[in-house]
Structure formats: structure tokens, C-alpha cells
């Protein structure tokens, strides 16, 4: 079974680990028994399609979450963040309940991971733990700091309780548990957190969860830059609105395509599988069937012959009072983006040019901006600065509405591109102080989650 590697803590010490262990000793008066390290990620292409059942293509970053841990005899969980901006938490570990009403506290992501493992152990009680947490993944930036935290907490809990779960099982369990927060995302972030391999991006497909190595052609650099427009996804309902629109589009397409089990089909990829059309033919069908620019809830109910209570059962809780849905635009993005992912993977396989890859990234951004409407004017500006400054392609990464851009550049031009962005975006927008390597950097594909002991 492929479980997360256990590597030597002594051989992998660095300044950050030392600081976290010092913090642990100061807080709890003893040494941690082990530390876990889980990476953030940047998604190269395949945005807002994982929860529609389609494959995505992310890579892990060097930036990560570290949790130092020690199991205890009692049933108390104590969590301290190395950054005092995030307040500590203490509670009964066998009595955690995180719901979408629990508030937007950082520690809820830790509790999601713990609760996920605890529920998988059915009736067994789990041990108490002392934890200290450190993160170098930018928060609310589309780099998956939230999932890295959930995955790190789940890994800590499973290891502390002597479980041995495969990387796949951990990833699926964490994808389910992060939904306790209320956002109904797909499984991309948790999958790459566990399944990443140093030096490779991954083509990740779902049901069953599989990750295939993708080698980015030689001579290309991946650059990440923060737009400084920030959205806290858990505190807003925009993400789930898109989930709702994609689900409604799937049910209507399934019904109008004559599928007898349409009531059970809520995922666009399942509609495609059952009707047996190619992605481009699905795009055509989608334009025919979902011809209106906007659907009211009433119209959706009429098409589906459901009353509004029944219709709402299909929707994430915080979107049940939504009255207007853009269905064709969202579904068209999903089918076209899914096609771009497979083209991107194919170009990488045959050693295609950076231009071709960059072009797909540009199309992805434009579609997210115009059809999916999840960009932000500042992100659009950053993307456009990157394109003008010699990037082969640039797009928003992660859920959007702010956060980071990912750009592809020729390796020998990456430094010039960074300097140009600092000039044309950061300084031009009085963000000069932010232009350090925390917010604008290039990265090699990093490795997946490990346990250090
Ligand atoms: P971010 O916003 O980067 O955490 C979210 C979802 C992903 C995926 C992307 C959009 C979670 C945990 N993550 O990522 O599954 O849907 O948006 O492609 O909900
Ligand atoms: Mg996230």
C-alpha cells in the first residue's frame, strides 16, 4: 500500500522546523513525537471542473504547512499557531463538530482533518494531541493553504492513532472532510497534497482517484504571483453558487437528453458519460438545450417538474435562496476547460511547445473571466501585465475572485518577467512593498505529504 513516507526528522531540519519545535517545547514543555509536512499547490490548468467530475492538472509547491505533534493520554486537543495572528484552540477531541455555522476560524480546518479521521474510526475514541502549526502557503490566495491544513491535520491524527491509510484514501477522506466547512469543492487540492511527486505535475482524475505524472517540457518555468485581491472562500457564497449552477446544468442536460435516471445525475461528467458524446459535442448540446442567458429558479423548477423545495435539495445549503442561475455559460466553461486539460496533458507528453501550453492557459483565464465570472479586475490586470511582459500564457489559479495568477515562461526569461511584473503591476499599483519572493516566485513541482520522525 502506498502510504505517506516517514523520513528522518534529524536529516531534514531547517530553520523553520527548528522554530516550530522550539515553539512546541515552549507551549507544552516537551518535544513533539513527530512532524508532518504537506505542500500547497498551484493548478496549471483545469479550474472549477474537479467538482464536475473532470480531470485537473496541478503541481505541488515548495510552500507548505508543518504540524508538530505529540499524542497525549487525555482526550484534549490543543492547537497553537506559530503566527500569533491566529489564536490558539483547545477542546474535547472526541466531541468536535464543525459545521458551516462554526464561523470562519483557521482552527476549523485543523478540526476538519481530525474529525474526518475520527469518523473513519467509527466507534473508537481517538487520543488527545498537542499541536503546533506553521504555514508558508499564502492564505486566501488560491494556493490551497486550507486543504494543506486539513490534510496535515488528518495525517497527524491518523499517524498518532496508529492507522495506516493509503495516500488515495487520505486524499478522498480529506476532500470529504473539508466540506464540513461548507464549501462543496472537488478533490483536486487534497489529491495533489498526498499524491504529488517531486519534479512532476500531476494529471488527476476522480472516481477512481488516479494521478499520472506530467513532465512540464524542459526549458519552461512556472511563475506564481499574488494579485492582492483576496477572497475568503468560506466566508462567501460565490464558490457554492457556481457548484449550484453546474449541478442544475447537469440535471437539466440529463433530463433534456432523455436519460431516465436524470434525477440522480448532478455532475456534468456523468451526463457526458451517459449520453456518450465527445466534450466538443457536449458543448454544442449545451448551447442548444440551455439557450437562455439566465434561468430563474421558477424556470428551472418548471423544466425539471420539481417544486422549489425539491429543487433546493440539490443545491448547497447557502445557495438555496438563489433566484437566478447562469447555466449555459458555466457548463460551456466546464466542457471546454476539460478539453483544454487533456490537450495540455497531451502537449506535455509529446514535448509540445511552451506557446501551445501558454495558449491553453490564456484561453482558460478568458473563459473563467467571461463565462465562469470568477476573476477580479486586479487579477485580470496582473494576467494582462504578464502576457505583455513576455509570459507564454497566464491565468488565475485556484477558485479565483482574487488570489494568485500562474504564468508559464521560458526559463531564461523568467527573471525578466518577474522584474517586469514588479514594475508594471506591483509598483504601478503601489504594492511595491509586497514584491518579495513570498508573493511572486517561480517554483519547481514539489513533493507530497511526508511524516518527519
Ligand atoms: P481553492 O480555492 O484554491 O482552495 C477550490 C477547490 C478546488 C477546486 C478549485 C477551483 C476546495 C478545497 N478547493 O480551490 O477543489 O474546485 O477551487 O478549480 O474547495
Ligand atoms: Mg482552499
TrEMBL record:
Pfam families: GalKase_gal_bdg, GHMP_kinases_C, GHMP_kinases_N. InterPro entries: Galactokinase, Galactokinase_CS, GalKase_N, GHMP_kinase_C_dom, GHMP_kinase_C_sf, GHMP_kinase_N_dom, GHMP_knse_ATP-bd_CS, Mevalonate/galactokinase. GO terms for biological process: galactose metabolic process. Keywords: ATP-binding, Kinase, Nucleotide-binding, Transferase. Transmembrane segments: none annotated. It comes from the Eukaryota. Residues 23-71 form the Galactokinase N-terminal domain. GO terms for molecular function: ATP binding; galactokinase activity. Residues 349-426 form the GHMP kinase C-terminal domain. Residues 108-195 form the GHMP kinase N-terminal domain. GO terms for cellular component: cytosol. NCBIfam families: gal_kin (TIGR00131). Belongs to the GHMP kinase family. GalK subfamily. This is N-acetylgalactosamine kinase. It comes from Megalurothrips usitatus (bean blossom thrips).
Amino acid at each position: 500500500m502506498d502510504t505517506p513516507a516517514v523520513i528522518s526528522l534529524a536529516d531534514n531540519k531547517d530553520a523553520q522546523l527548528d522554530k516550530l519545535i522550539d515553539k512546541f517545547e515552549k507551549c507544552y514543555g516537551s518535544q513533539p513525537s513527530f512532524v508532518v509536512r504537506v505542500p500547497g499547490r498551484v493548478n496549471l490548468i483545469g479550474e472549477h471542473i474537479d467538482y464536475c467530475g473532470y480531470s485537473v492538472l496541478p503541481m505541488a509547491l515548495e510552500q507548505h504547512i508543518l504540524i508538530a505533534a505529540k499524542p497525549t493520554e487525555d482526550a484534549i486537543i490543543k492547537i497553537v499557531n506559530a503566527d500569533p495572528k491566529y489564536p490558539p484552540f483547545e477542546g474535547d477531541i472526541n466531541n468536535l463538530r464543525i459545521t458551516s455555522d462554526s464561523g470562519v476560524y483557521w482552527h476549523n480546518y485543523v478540526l476538519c482533518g481530525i474529525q474526518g479521521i475520527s469518523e473513519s474510526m467509527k466507534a473508537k475514541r481517538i487520543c488527545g494531541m498537542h499541536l503546533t502549526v506553521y504555514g508558508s502557503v499564502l492564505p486566501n490566495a488560491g494556493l490551497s493553504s486550507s486543504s494543506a491544513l486539513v490534510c496535515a491535520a488528518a495525517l497527524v491524527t491518523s499517524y498518532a492513532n496508529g492507522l495506516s491509510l493509503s495516500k488515495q484514501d487520505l486524499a478522498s477522506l480529506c476532500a470529504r472532510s473539508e466540506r464540513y466547512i461548507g464549501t462543496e469543492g472537488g478533490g483536486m487540492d487534497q489529491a495533489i497534497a498526498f499524491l504529488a511527486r517531486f519534479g512532476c505535475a500531476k494529471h488527476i482524475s476522480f472516481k477512481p482517484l488516479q494521478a499520472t505524472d506530467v513532465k512540464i517540457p524542459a526549458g519552461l518555468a512556472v511563475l506564481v504571483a499574488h494579485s492582492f485581491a483576496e477572497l475568503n472562500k468560506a466566508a462567501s457564497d460565490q464558490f457554492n453558487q457556481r457548484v449550484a449552477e453546474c449541478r442544475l446544468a447537469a440535471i437539466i442536460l440529463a433530463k433534456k437528453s432523455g436519460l431516465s435516471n436524470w434525477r440522480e445525475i448532478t455532475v456534468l461528467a456523468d451526463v457526458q458519460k451517459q449520453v456518450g458524446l465527445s466534450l466538443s459535442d457536449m458543448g454544442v448540446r449545451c448551447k442548444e438545450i440551455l439557450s437562455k442567458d439566465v434561468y430563474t429558479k421558477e424556470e428551472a423548477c418548471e423544466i425539471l417538474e420539481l417544486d422549489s423545495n425539491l429543487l433546493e435539495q440539490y443545491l448547497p445549503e447557502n445557495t438555496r435562496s438563489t433566484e437566478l442561475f447562469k447555466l449555459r455559460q458555466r457548463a460551456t466553461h466546464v466542457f471546454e476547460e476539460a478539453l483544454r486539460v487533456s490537450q495540455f496533458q497531451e502537449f506535455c507528453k509529446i514535448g509540445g511547445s511552451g506557446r501551445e501550453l501558454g495558449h491553453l492557459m490564456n484561453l482558460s483565464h478568458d473563459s473563467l473571466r467571461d463565462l465562469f465570472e470568477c476573476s477580479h479586475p486586479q487579477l485580470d490586470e496582473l494576467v494582462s501585465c504578464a502576457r505583455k511582459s513576455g509570459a507564454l500564457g497566464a491565468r488565475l489559479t485556484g477558485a479565483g475572485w482574487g488570489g494568485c495568477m500562474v504564468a508559464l515562461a521560458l526559463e531564461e526569461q523568467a527573471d525578466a518577467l518577474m522584474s517586469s511584473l514588479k514594475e508594471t503591476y506591483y509598483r504601478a499599483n503601489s504594492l511595491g512593498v509586497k514584491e518579495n519572493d513570498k508573493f511572486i516566485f517561480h517554483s519547481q513541482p514539489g513533493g507530497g505529504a511526508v511524516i518527519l520522525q
